[in-house]
Design brief:
The protein has 14 helices and eleven strands. The protein is an alpha/beta fold. The strands form two sheets. Strands 4, 5, 6, 7, 8, 9, 10 and 11 form an eight-stranded mixed β-sheet that branches. Strands 2-1-3 form a three-stranded parallel β-sheet. It binds pentane-1,5-diamine. Pentane-1,5-diamine (N2P) binds next to strand 10.
Length: 369
């Protein structure tokens, strides 16, 4: 039953995304009018726990200027790091930014606070393709933040041949020149895909084969980095690797020789969302923040500074009308606006239940080798 629901979710997501190669084309923005403004929160601070390099300081400053609420922004580098903090209890955080499968896990564990949509009129700005997803039907606990892919990046001037598959990363000519995310699900998932297995396999034998495959890749890996893998690509220290779309976009902005492809074996697809941890000290500020992030102009700040893909149709429309160069750049790059054939080969990370322990162990073991 669980598997069936998940599979339908993936199919739904893939169908929805591939049915519209250009996410900006179907916008029906509902601008917030003064009459729809949610109540001024009584809280004076907001504790945000989000991915590193993901929320523009300007957006936080604008929020403070509008509501008089000070934002404390703590960062994490993976869903697993954030989950561990929430599972330890009373984190004190008001807003977190989990990916799809992590939202599903946190809902199952009763770790999220339901949201009051009446406080979030800007939710109407979100392209309906990105709402009501399998991991949170009816958006009871989350609103979309950014989405994207996890795929193969390379610098055309550095690589000795044109990579087309993940298997190419094992080529000895990449020795000491790869950067990969410090992310157990994405990296193990890539090794599984390279072996022709399901990215979400729970089969211990397949997982063991994936570990051995990764051990063989280690001489080629210079860096594990989920925070700013683009930096080593820009300096030329690394030539290729496994990164999130936004990292590739940032590298491409500095160097037009950067390419970002979904390899023949497939790549990753994810949806990040704002959510409120159970027992958050300032849920009123959290909902005001969710609404504020979904304002078209504020949301466009995210796409300009951290160019992942933006699920906010009104924000893309705002960029089109007010920042034509930024909009053109967004539409032109595979990282921000992936074509349908890219998305068709992209697979979501799924909650693997008790097999999570196998992934954790494998990752610790592999990193320690
Ligand atoms: C930001 C990482 C983006 C998160 N540094 C990908 N889900």
């Amino acid at each position: 039953m669980k598997t069936f629901r998940f599979v339908s979710g993936v199919l739904l997501v893939v169908m929805l995304l591939s049915s519209c190669a250009s996410p900006a084309a179907t916008s029906s923005p509902a601008a917030t009018s003064a009459g729809q403004e949610p109540a001024q929160p009584a809280s004076k601070s907001l504790n945000l726990y989000g991915w590193s390099d993901y929320v523009p300081q300007q957006l936080l400053d604008d929020f403070t200027a509008k509501y008089g609420i000070k934002v404390n922004y703590d960062t994490y580098s993976s869903n697993e790091e954030m989950q561990a903090k929430l599972q330890a209890g009373a984190s004190g955080y008001d807003v977190v930014i989990p990916s799809d499968y992590t939202i599903a896990i946190l809902i199952k564990q009763n770790k999220l606070e339901p949201i009051d949509m009446a406080q979030i009129p800007n939710f109407a700005n979100v392209d309906p393709k990105f709402t009501n997803q399998y991991y949170d039907p009816g958006n009871k606990y989350s609103v979309p933040y950014q989405w994207g892919t996890t795929a193969l990046v390379y610098d055309k001037t550095k690589v000795p041949f044109e990579p087309k598959s993940w298997a190419d990363l094992w080529d000895a000519r990449f020795k000491g020149h790869l950067v990969v995310l410090d992310d157990e699900r994405e990296v193990i998932g890539m090794a599984l895909q390279t072996l022709g297995y399901d990215k979400n396999s729970t089969d211990p034998t397949q997982l063991q084969a994936a570990e051995q495959k990764l051990i063989d890749l280690k001489p080629n890996i210079l860096l594990f980095n989920s925070d700013d893998p683009e930096t080593s690509l820009i300096t030329g220290e690394t030539w290729a690797g496994l990164v999130f779309n936004g990292n590739a976009s940032l590298a491409y902005q500095q160097d037009a020789n950067i390419s970002y492809i979904c390899p023949t074996e497939g790549c990753g697809l994810w949806f990040d969302n704002l959510a409120i941890p159970k027992d958050a000290p300032h849920p009123d500020a959290a909902m005001a923040f969710m609404n504020f992030v979904l304002d078209p102009k504020e949301s466009s700040l995210i796409s300009k500074e951290f160019p992942y893909s933006n699920p906010n149709a009104a924000a893309l429309e705002y960029m089109k009308n007010n920042e034509p160069d930024a909009y053109a750049a967004y539409m032109a790059f595979e990282g921000t606006n992936p074509p349908a054939d890219f998305i068709a080969k992209a697979t979501l990370v799924k909650d693997v239940g008790s097999a999570t322990q196998l992934y954790d162990q494998l990752w610790t073991d592999f990193k320690g080798k």
